[in-house]
Amino acid sequence: MNDVKDTSGGEVITNVALKDIANLSKRRGFIFQNSEIYGGIGSVWDYGPLGIELKNNVKAEWWKSMVYDRDDVEGLDAAIIMNPETWKASGHVSSFADLLADCLECKKRFRTDKIQGESCPECGGKLTEPRSFDLMFKTRVGSVEGEALDIYLRPETAQGIFVNFSNILNSSRQKPPFGVAQIGKSFRNEITTGNFTFRSREFEQMELEFFVKPGEDEQWYEYWVEARFNWYIGLGIKKENLRLREHAPDELAHYAKKCHDVEFLFPMGWSELEGIANRTDYDLKQHSSLSGQELNYFDDATGERYVPYVIEPSGGVDRAVLAFLINAYRTETVRDRKRTYLSFDNRLAPIKAAVLPLLKNKPEIVEMAHRIRDDIRGVYRVVYDDTASIGRLYRRQDEIGTPYCITVDVESLEDGKVTVRERDSMDQVRLEASALKNFLKDKLENC
Ligand code: GAP
Has domain 15-83+155-325 been given CATH number 3.30.930.10? Predict the structure, then answer.
């Protein structure tokens, strides 16, 4: 248990390569390559026992800030499969494609909007003419040939909100300004992949469509840009690694009047974490015109009818998870040994506490440790572990970001006290076992 941090141990290193994150993710059970036993499939990932906890915590924090902490946002869970007319109206059928060029020398493929000049950015070779690649996955609904309908897996969750605009307006007591929040899977047949989970073919989005009166859109846009930037900071992303970048006019999506990206300094450079767009009245008008259904709002107070403008903060769950992993990664030398730990905000940590018996061959200690584990678990994930020496058990919990390790020793049997070790500082305190529940509640729920 002699694990107090040696202050002469040197600096804490926070730089990390993507391959270190990918290795740790696999070794500890955060993220696995999908269908790996068959050689995998490009850019599709599975979340392991710790990954699912981290992902759920990220989604819960987003939902809390978007829905539970406000009274002007409703939730929705729309289906992935939609009537294909949706994608004609949204503009995805005609314009959701990447322009790609291949290098005739090294055979690498590039998005032409991401490279400068007309030759290969890697080897200087000649590039082919740009070709358009459709990003939507196509499949079929129905089994009888001729009667089957060609459909798409949704490339964004947003359209499920737009087509439900009237349903939500009529069934809730909301009126503009109000929003609809949704978290769900999206699919894109990405051609240029790599960088671990950053650009996946199956991924999750957290999207809010916030409907406002035209003319009030600019001020709500500013509001959401600031709110979304601060959400990441509030959950521990270092300010120097987060920035806002406004889209140049030629970068804007076909529906957007204005867009800011929240960018994170990933190991491969500044890259998009989330986009906040002013989508104007584009989507509601398009769906109105193609469906023949009125999608607008009548204001009883003023007698005015209008099509709301939409401000859309659209974040990727997988990119947020990756950013939180990178942001949390630390290494340092303690008593001549390298220690790796994930310094997650307590709200995001996959496991909140580990109960560790100092001697596993002493039944009374094991029994007391189990009792403590049973007492504190239920609200959040707590584990019991006695499969290695205490030093190794600490290292394991450090590496998966568990904020508190609770050790039961021989003295505990006499004085009813346990040792609580904090992950980052490695500080230890002795506490009555009966006080643990309140201690953890205070630490974990009042971040
Ligand atoms: N509804 C607007 C929309 O979908 P987007 O910029 O294409 O806008 C929003 O996507 C967010 O979704 C991105 O900022 C990113 O976090 C995430 N995202 C998009 N494509 C992704 C992919 N292939 N893999 C992982 N996340 C992706």
Answer: yes
